[in-house]
Amino acid sequence: MTGTETVLGAPVERREGREKVTGTARYAAEYDPPGRAQAWPVPAAVARGRVTGVDPAPALAVPGVLAVLTHENAPRLGDPDDPTLALLQSPHVPHRGWFVGLVVAETLEAARAGAAAVRVTYEAEGHDVTLTAAHPEAYVPESANGGFPAVTEHGDPEGAFASSATRVDVEYRIPPLHNHPMEPHTSTAQWDGDRLTVHSSSQGTSAVRTELARLFEVPEDRITVLAEHVGGGFGSKGTPRPEVVLAAMAARETGRPVTVALPRRYLPAVVGHRAPTLHRLRLGADAGGRLTSLTHEVTTHTSRVKEFVEQAAVPARVMYAAPALRTAHRVVRLDVPTPSWMRAPGECPGMYALESAVDELAVELGMDPVELRIRNEPETEPDSGKPFSSRHLVECLREGARRFGWEGRDPRPRSRAAGPLLIGSGVAAATYPVLVSPCAASARALPGGGFLVRVNATDIGTGARTVCAQVAADALGVPLDRVRIEVADSDIGFAPMAGGSSGTASWGWAVHEACVRLTGRLAERSGPLPDEGIAADADTSGTADAESPYARHAFGAHFVEVTVDTVTGEVRVTRLLGVFAAGRILNARTARSQFIGGMTMGLGMALTEDSTVDPAFGDFAESDLASYHVPAHADVAAVEAHWVDEEDAHLNPMGSKGIGEIGIVGSAAAVGNAVHHATGIRFRELPLTPDRVLTGLLEHEHPAGTLGT
User: Fold this and answer.
1) SS3 of residue 167 by DSSP
2) Which residues contact 685 (CB under 8 A, 6 or more apart)?
3) Which residues, 6+ apart, have CB-to-CB distance to 93 below 8 Å?
4) What angle is formed at CA 246 by the lines to CA 242 and CA 252, rounded to 5 degrees?
5) Could you tell me the pLDDT band of residue 633, with boundaries at 50, 70 and 90?
6) Alpha-carbon distance 430 to 355, whole Å?
7) Cα 236 to Cα 497: distance, rounded to the nearest angstrom
8) Which of 177, 42, 131, 46 is nearest to 616 (CA)?
9) What is the dihedral of CA 403, 409, 413, 416, to 10 degrees?
10) 687 preceded by cis ω (within 30°)?
11) Measured between alpha carbons, how far is 647 from 205 in angstroms, rounded to an integer?
């Protein structure tokens, strides 16, 4: 594309696409400076306790092994901002899989063999890894993730619920879930005196540099972190993870560049996971279907290393008009790995439970679930009372219903069948907050008519390079092919991570401001540009992070059709449709890809993704992609993503909202609601695997005491 009139919104191809498909795009493990060594971590083999002894001799006897680092000889680190990065500093083992050693070798094979040869002895302690709603150590935290209050209450939820004409009191359970990006967590580190250069598979280089400076007590300007290409993260690379600290540590100790690429089976224990959540929802409504009371209470777990509270009750503060509203979080410290960010933390599990309960209420009322949601549309944000900057959920529901053919749906469960297949359809709403952070960027006009834009954005496969270039071309009023862009280098300047669906809004705001300022400078001068060109900088601190008088959220609606095999219990999704209202769409091609990716990830949450903490050994039983099943193309026959045009003047100069995460929010609930419509059975625990569904079908056909009669 060379024009400027439609540069924003146009379906521009990814700028790095050719590099990726030809294999020339280099990821963190593929930087191979002279003398590079490889390192392999040693995970703890007890669920809780302390290391009583380490014998490195067998590892050092392996040909090619250079060093074995443990708490006994590893360099002392500064106090980390994140306690999960206090690596090899103590004999204490807080959970199974915690790293207790690192073997550095000439080759990856030697490092792996050396790690297996290290002999570690432990003094094991009693452990508890089992989450229950009635756990005696459950407590109400000071706040949930993001600084949200742990508890909010308006009106008299208990009294309003008791006097409601129709009531739903239900519990839902979501297991631990894992991010599993295609590229595991990897870093290559190299010291040159007191200067450190790191190539890291991270969602944000600024945060990595800041933490490395703190840990190794080196000024930030002596550290460069680069993340040119990142093979996915889904939140697990949103903050520095153990591999980057271990790589820098090993490189300093050996005097050689070192790569640490975490084996996939180690990821669940050390890079975070979506914590399991236990939900109780009580919804009361009057005879006309208007909510009178809404209570959403969540119990989750955290580790003893660091408190992380999944904010799963927060979406209920946004979605529906209810004069009496209570949301609450409780958390239990267990001997488990530390949970962390995973795509749409809080909103994803919270909206699964809420939207499933709303569907149950619709059934109790005998009301269409689309109309029930519309009937309870709030005029202002229920929790804060703020006006919405824009809210087009009703339009999403109406447009989705039209595209899906919802009007012809028979609401009766088990009303459609094809041989042994029961066919059903379901709906769920979606929401995700608009987040934005300060960022720095620069723009330079070059002799010859080109422009160089620099912003420390991280492209984790979302097309950040492309969209930021589109923002720049639009602000400069020039063809897109005249804009060159550089990203993912901490030396460019501060930038927030690619997370919270805030990347484009944050980076794009700074890019826009820099380009507008550059345009102003160019307008003030005449004649040829100097050899170095003319530049302008921007820093959106104080503006991008200013308090808004508006409640800013994206919204959407999911519609799903499923078949349920009554012989095998297998659920197949035959149609998956999403309609979203997410401000101005800046690139139709990459936006559709993000929506579809999120929707499909929600499908996996509903049907295949499952993890369990082994109560005896204290680790996740499903630790690789052979046992933790992510969805593939074949798992959905037809998937469509659409959006409604939305103008919102209260966001950022582009008028955009984040789209990376709203696609997953509500997707699993729509699948579950469709399964209920198909079978007449309400499954309240994910995932809906064949064994679970078949058991439900058999119990439905043969109630207790009748099987075999």
Assistant:
1) strand
2) 172, 173, 174, 175, 692
3) 44, 46, 48, 49, 50, 51, 100, 122
4) 150
5) confident
6) 9
7) 12
8) 46
9) -100
10) yes
11) 32
Bridge partner residues of 55 (DSSP): 119
What 8-state DSSP symbol labels residue 519? Answer: H
Determine if the pTM surpasses 0.85: yes
Instruction: Quote the CA–CA distance of 582 and 571 in Å, as a whole number.
Output: 30
CA dist., res. 386 & res. 380, Å (int): 6
- Please name the amino acid found at residue 705: G
Residue 248 token pair: 């820098």
Which of 434, 511, 436 is closest to 469 using CA atoms?
Answer: 511
Residue whose entry in the numeric block shows the structure tokens 């619709």? 362
346: which DSSP letter? T
The 10 Å CB-count burial string (b at 16+, else e) for 374-397 is bbbebeebbbeeeebbbbbbbbbb
DSSP codes of every residue in 369-403: HHHHHHHT--SS-TTT-PPBS---HHHHHHHHHHH
Burial 157-175 (b: 16+ CB within 10 A, else e): beebbeebebbbebebebb
Do strands 571-581 and 639-643 pair parallel, antiparallel, or not at all (unpaired)?
Answer: parallel
Measured N-to-C along each axis, helices 690-701 and 667-679 cross at an angle, to the nearest 10 degrees, of 30
Express each pLDDT in 50-95 by its tens digit.
Answer: 999 999 999 999 999 999 999 999 999 999 999 999 999 999 999 9
Distance CA 592, CA 589 (A): 5
DSSP string over 65-107: EEEEEETTTSPPPPPPSSGGG-TTS-SEE-STT-EEEEEEESS
Q: With contact defined as beta carbons under 8 Å apart, do 408 and 567 qualify? A: no
pLDDT tens across 512-558, in order? 999 999 999 999 998 899 999 999 999 999 999 999 999 999 999 99
Distance CA 358, CA 430 (A): 13
| Residues acting as catalytic residues | 661
DSSP 490: G
Q: How far apart are CA 410 and CA 419, in angstroms?
A: 18
Residue indicated by tokens 């998937």: 639
Q: What angle do CA 63, 65, 68 make, to 5 degrees?
A: 145
Q: Which helix (H) or strand (E) holds 601?
A: helix 588-607
d(CA 3, CA 691): 55
Helix or strand run (H / E) with residue 362: helix 347-365
